[in-house]
């Protein structure tokens, strides 16, 4: 299936909903620039992309993914979502994304470094603090950001820490960044529990994806006393109706084991996990998890998209008809890029901001952004999804910027 084509349908829906003119919506149908290269490492060649999708609101911004299934269709979709996410988050960025079709889990450190440096060599002319600013994404981290920064700086001949975010502290990173996606997701999940579930007692939670974001978010929700009944990683899930001991499961996972090997629960498949009876289902793995095949079997009351694009277009409609509320990715996982923005701003001004201040700022932004989306959703009294409300707000801000830039007529 073509993920990008699927997503353009969501854009068309918003164009219809808001009566957006053809010449305006056309600006968002395709990327500004697709950069492709083949990274040659020894006798291997890895396809790599950096796609700048839109820059009306500012430089490109978005992560780099290393994964064996990366494709141009996927990177372009991720870049498109970054455009909307950055706009909705009210930060001064356009949107971009990168990816390398490569499995870092099968690589040693030497190869990982070589791929990261080769990526910077291939695309350094496209990157820069005022041009396009990468960050971590699936299977990439601060270490990889360091190699890309170092290689970039060698190429351009000056220091420029603001060309990338998610860096280690010593290279200009900020402590808050590592669990920012989870922290933001946690805040909007709490809002959804309050508004959609009316602060129901004993909220049951299921989490698909026990990697970085999913794991931190599960810990936060468990610490609040919510009952986490199932979690999964790429190898499968573990289910315990009485509630899992999340702290013990984290220790187990951190010792290198798969969650479905954990003894205090029943091993289940990822497909079974998605269909469990639960209040909240957090999707923190990859794209295309809920499709027309399984949407009808979903029993969660609220779905939180911590991953990008876990639900396909047609499945949105099925879930909507079943009155399942989806907190969309561009809102739910925006904590990561919001904190990236703090890091970038700090790198540019040279000022150091207190962690507490930034934590509060993230909190405030997430709650305000949730409120704007939820208000719009209520305004249309449930005739649209939260995703449509979020897309509508995001698209309007971008198109206003395009008008000021004179790319479309002002009236
Ligand atoms: N990869 C993250 C995302 O999908 C973060 C992007 C960033 O910080 O630029 O939102």
What does the average pLDDT come to? 96
- The top-level CATH class of the largest domain is Alpha Beta
Structural class designation: alpha/beta
Terminal residue distance: 38 Å
Report the CATH architecture of the largest domain: 3-Layer(aba) Sandwich
| CATH topology (level 3) name of the largest domain | Rossmann fold
Please mark out the parts with pLDDT under 50 across 5 or more consecutive residues, or reply none: none
The proportion of strand residues reads: 15-25%
Globally, the shape reads globular
Helix content: 40-55%
Largest sheet: 7 strands, mixed
Rg calc: 20 Å
Determine the CATH superfamily of the largest domain.
NAD(P)-binding Rossmann-like Domain
Number of helices: 14
Strand order of the largest sheet: 10-9-8-7-11-12-13
Enumerate the distinct ligands: glutamic acid
Number of strands: 13
């Amino acid at each position: 299936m073509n993920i990008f084509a699927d997503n353009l349908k969501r854009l068309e829906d918003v164009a219809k909903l808001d009566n957006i003119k053809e010449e305006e919506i056309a600006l968002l149908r395709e990327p500004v620039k697709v950069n492709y290269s083949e990274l040659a490492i020894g006798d291997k060649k890895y396809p790599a992309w950096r796609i700048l999708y839109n820059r009306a609101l500012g430089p490109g911004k978005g992560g780099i993914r290393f994964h064996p299934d990366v494709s141009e269709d996927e990177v372009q979709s991720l870049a498109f979502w970054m455009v909307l996410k950055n706009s909705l988050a009210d930060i001064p960025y356009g949107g971009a994304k990168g990816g390398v079709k490569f499995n870092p889990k099968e690589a040693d450190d030497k190869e990982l470094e070589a791929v990261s440096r080769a990526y910077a060599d291939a695309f350094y002319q496209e990157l820069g603090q005022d041009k396009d600013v990468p960050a971590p994404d699936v299977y990439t981290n601060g270490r990889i950001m360091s190699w890309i920064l170092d290689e970039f700086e060698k190429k351009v001949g000056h220091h420029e820490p603001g060309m990338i975010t998610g860096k280690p502290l010593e290279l200009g990173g900020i402590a808050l960044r590592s669990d920012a996606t989870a922290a933001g997701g946690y805040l909007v999940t709490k809002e959804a529990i309050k508004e959609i579930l009316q602060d129901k007692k004993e909220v049951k939670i299921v989490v698909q994806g026990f990697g970085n974001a999913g794991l931190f978010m599960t810990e936060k929700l468990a610490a609040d006393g919510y009952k986490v009944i199932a979690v999964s990683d790429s190898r499968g899930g573990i289910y315990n109706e009485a509630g899992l001991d999340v702290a013990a499961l984290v220790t187990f996972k951190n010792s290198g084991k798969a969650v479905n090997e954990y003894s205090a629960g029943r091993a289940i498949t990822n497909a079974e996990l998605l269909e469990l009876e639960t209040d909240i289902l957090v999707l923190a793995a990859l794209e295309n998890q809920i499709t027309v095949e399984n949407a009808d079997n979903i029993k969660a009351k609220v779905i939180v998209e911590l991953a990008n694009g876990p639900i396909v277009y047609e499945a949105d409609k099925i879930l909507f008809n079943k009155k399942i509320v989806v907190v969309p990715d561009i809102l739910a996982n925006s904590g990561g890029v919001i904190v990236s923005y703090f890091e970038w701003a700090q790198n540019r001004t040279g000022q150091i901001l207190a962690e507490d201040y930034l934590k509060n700022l993230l909190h405030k932004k997430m709650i305000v952004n949730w409120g704007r989306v939820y208000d719009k959703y209520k305004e249309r009294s449930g005739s649209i999804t939260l995703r449509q409300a979020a897309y509508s707000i995001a698209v309007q801000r971008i198109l206003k910027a395009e008008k000021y830039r004179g790319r479309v007529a002002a009236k």
